[in-house]
């Protein structure tokens, strides 16, 4: 049975670079996790600072993760550009329409809550054997208990952007030539789960499975040109010592554009500091 692709909200700059890739659906986030794509939870409540320790939706994906999902057919993208969003926000008729829709949505939600709360109140009185009486005080109390759940996605991003195939094709074409994406794709093809590696001094860190179950084994550097770029001895020392200290292997990556087969263009060299750590 075919699995429905997850939905990603992608913001793209004019040159085709991914500036944001967000997933809002918890169901989609779980499915991505099963695919080995973890991303980073980034949702927070600005007015409640202590909540920021436990971040929530949306899930922020790296550009490599988003494009890899699109390339594999695991995801579909709502692609937006900042200039298009700005033009949308300046459209007064659209702003008025969205405002009316929001008011209607709030009133429908409140009415649903009123019906539910009245039913629960009547049920409780019957259990206690108390005759139900309609009092103004009860209605005031009911109205004060109504709440509105803030939406966890953007109406403008959802409705004002489209699954434009030409934009998605532009993303794939641009990143297919990107060295970082080639390294990411190669690591994923070996069954590794890949996450950002800046905190360990690399471009990526690679796990043998879900990061909640396994420690990462490798810190992978940003790719070099396999034929032209020199490898600084200082970088080898710094990378290998840091990686060995945190019980990982330092992996140098390179792109050999002279290889005809694309999967053979990415080269890896592992370095471990012997007798250290």
List keywords for this structure.
single chain; 277 residues; alpha/beta; Trna Endonuclease, Chain: A, domain 1; six-stranded mixed beta sheet; five-stranded mixed beta sheet; 9 helices
Explained architecture:
Keywords: Lyase, tRNA processing. Belongs to the tRNA-intron endonuclease family. Its EC number is 4.6.1.16. It comes from Torulaspora globosa. Helix 2 packs across helix 8. The radius of gyration is 26 Å and the shape is elongated. The protein has nine helices and eleven strands. The chain is α/β, with parallel strands linked by helices and 277 residues long. Strand 1 and strand 2 form a beta hairpin. The strands form two sheets. Strands 6, 7, 8, 9, 10 and 11 form a six-stranded mixed β-sheet that branches. The chain has a five-stranded mixed β-sheet with strand order 3-4-2-1-5. The longest helix has 37 residues.
Show the helix and strand layout.
Blueprint: E1 6-12, E2 18-23, H1 26-34, E3 40-43, E4 56-60, H2 63-72, E5 75-80, H3 82-89, H4 92-128, H5 136-144, H6 155-159, H7 165-176, H8 179-189, E6 193-196, E7 204-207, E8 218-220, E9 224-225, H9 233-245, E10 249-255, E11 266-271
Parallel strand pairs: 1-5, 8-10, 9-10
Antiparallel strand pairs: 1-2, 2-4, 3-4, 6-7, 7-8, 10-11
Helix pairs in contact: 2-7, 2-8
């Amino acid at each position: 049975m075919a699995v429905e692709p997850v939905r990603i909200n992608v913001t793209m700059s004019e040159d085709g670079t991914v500036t944001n890739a967000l997933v809002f659906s918890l169901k989609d986030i779980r499915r991505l996790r099963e695919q080995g794509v973890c991303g980073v939870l980034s949702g927070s409540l600005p007015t409640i600072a202590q909540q920021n320790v436990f971040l929530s939706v949306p899930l922020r994906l790296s550009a490599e993760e988003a494009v890899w999902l699109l390339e594999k057919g695991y995801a579909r993208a709502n692609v937006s550009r900042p200039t298009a969003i700005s033009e949308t926000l300046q459209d007064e008729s659209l702003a008025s329409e969205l405002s009316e829709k929001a008011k209607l949505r709030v009133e429908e939600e409140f009415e649903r809550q009123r019906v539910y709360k009245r039913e629960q109140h009547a049920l409780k009185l019957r259990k206690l054997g108390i005759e139900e009486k309609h009092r103004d005080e009860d209605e005031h109390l009911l109205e004060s208990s109504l709440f509105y759940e803030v939406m966890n996605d953007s109406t403008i991003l959802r409705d004002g952007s489209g699954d434009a195939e030409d934009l998605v094709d532009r993303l794939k074409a641009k990143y297919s030539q990107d060295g970082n994406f080639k390294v990411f794709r190669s690591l994923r093809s070996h069954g590794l789960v890949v996450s950002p590696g800046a905190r360990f001094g690399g471009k990526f860190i690679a796990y043998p499975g879900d990061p909640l179950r396994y420690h990462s084994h490798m810190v992978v550097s940003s790719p070099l040109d396999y034929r032209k770029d020199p490898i600084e001895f200082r970088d080898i020392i710094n990378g290998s010592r840091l990686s060995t200290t945190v019980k990982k292997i330092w992996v140098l990556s390179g792109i050999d554009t002279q290889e005809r087969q694309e999967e053979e263009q990415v080269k890896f060299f592992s370095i471990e500091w012997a007798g250290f750590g």
